[in-house]
Amino acid sequence: MAERVKIVVPGDDPVMIAGSPHLDRLVSYGEVVIFPDRPATVDEKIARVEEAEVIINTRGVVTWGREEFERLPDLKMITSCSIGTDMFDLVAAKEHGVVICNQPGRTAPVVAEHMFALMFSAARRTAYLTSEMKKGEWPRIDLITLQGKTLGIVGTGNIGAEMARFGQAVGMEVIAWTYNPSPERAKQMGVRFVELDELLAQSDVVSLHVKLTDESRGLMGTREFGLMKQGALLLNGARGPVVDSAALVAALNSGHLAGAGLDVYDEEPISADHPLLKCEHVVLTPHCADMTPEGVDLLNGGAVENVINYLDGSPRNRVS
């Protein structure tokens, strides 16, 4: 390595990597600068990183597109502290020679555990029952047994595979759909691949784990919810725009769906007047499925490893 580099964390809010012992591994490579708050404007964001060769992007709300790449000629590499890459314009990054790295599968067990918890919470209506009891009520309502039911996994990457394993462990039948099914993957996961319409019609719980792409945007809409079983549950651990929120709200309010467990939304942070907040049988968490001490440590370590691998001339987990 010819010279020390500048490495910037442009908006570590809420705190994720500040104070991490993994940062000590970067001392010999260069200067690490951490901004504890999110940039309010594009200009402020550019100013924070204009001399940086490397960015560690700890928050998905800090996005990087064509304008940013055009204004940052010194920028050579960005690593996310996450699995997703929808905060980057990958085409523009490639055109400007900026290496983008993510962390595929690193926290899959942590995320899947969270989504599994949301499934049980939605099935047992714990959020609704807690809310009613706090009002002084003693509600009586049918709950949902999951053993013996069918879990449909939409997207069979690392997180989807973990969800399948968890479902099988509690006695659920697991079926799956993916853009590129194969007999080898089906055998590896111990599932049966079916067409999406068939999965929606057969599943008691539909769990979403696809990447956000032009193809997956709006994957679940009015038609798809109509295909789902009366009284089924929806889980979204993918990205908010994979689901048409208005269609989901309609399916919940009509009683066609019995509930939903969501960790991602079409707008984040979700607004105080978002229609989903008025739905009785939803369990909501603020895009925090991997935010356990173990999960955060894994992601911080992975981000630092991505930077070191890049600076050593062997970038890994490269998506652009």
Judging from the principal axes of the Cα atoms, what is the shape?
A: globular
CATH level-4 homologous superfamily of the largest domain: NAD(P)-binding Rossmann-like Domain
Percentage of residues assigned to helices: 25-40%
Major sheet, described briefly? Answer: 7 strands, parallel
**C-alpha Rg (nearest Å):** 21 Å
Low-confidence stretches: none
Number of domains: 2
Features:
320 residues; Rossmann fold; five-stranded parallel β-sheet; alpha/beta; globular; seven-stranded parallel β-sheet; 11 helices
Description:
This protein has a 7-stranded parallel beta sheet, with helices on both faces. The chain has a 5-stranded parallel beta sheet with strand order 2-1-3-4-5. With 320 residues, the chain is α/β, with parallel strands linked by helices. The protein is globular, with a radius of gyration of 21 Å.
Fold blueprint:
Layout: E1 5-9, E2 30-34, H1 42-49, E3 54-57, H2 66-70, E4 77-80, H3 90-95, E5 99-101, H4 108-123, H5 126-134, E6 150-154, H6 158-169, E7 173-177, H7 183-189, E8 192-193, H8 196-202, E9 205-208, H9 222-227, E10 232-236, H10 245-253, E11 257-262, E12 282-284, H11 293-311
